[in-house]
Design goal:
110 residues; 49% helix
Length: 110
């Protein structure tokens, strides 16, 4: 599985935080920070929008590094992604992602 597939199955290469980081795109950082702050009702600033992927070495957003329960669970279980977990089909932790994003489930199964 590609390293840029997140623990949850989302494709980090399509994430605006990743794209802003690798392209050093301040406008995209500002746009993403504003959107995420509104969606999460949290004080997210453009300087928080830096990430090179949740399964790779390098900088991560505060959410991905410390708050993502999916990433924390996968690290604790020692699985490469949730696709390697025996509880994937019944998991409430990753359930919302895979039920709302068929490509994430396909990535985990692939």
């Amino acid at each position: 599985m590609r390293d840029m597939i997140a623990y949850c199955g989302l494709d980090c290469e399509k994430c605006d935080a990743y794209l802003a980081t690798i392209n050093d795109d301040q406008t995209l950082r500002e746009k993403t920070a504003k959107l995420w702050a509104e969606l999460d009702n949290a004080p997210i600033l453009p300087e928080h929008i830096n990430c090179k992927g949740c399964r790779t070495d390098g900088v991560k957003t505060v959410f991905c590094e410390n708050l993502c329960s999916i990433r924390q669970c996968a690290l604790k279980k020692g699985v490469a992604t949730c696709g390697d977990c025996l509880n994937l089909e019944n998991c409430s932790t990753v359930g919302a992602i895979i039920s709302n994003n068929p490509s994430a489930l396909k990535n985990l199964e692939g």
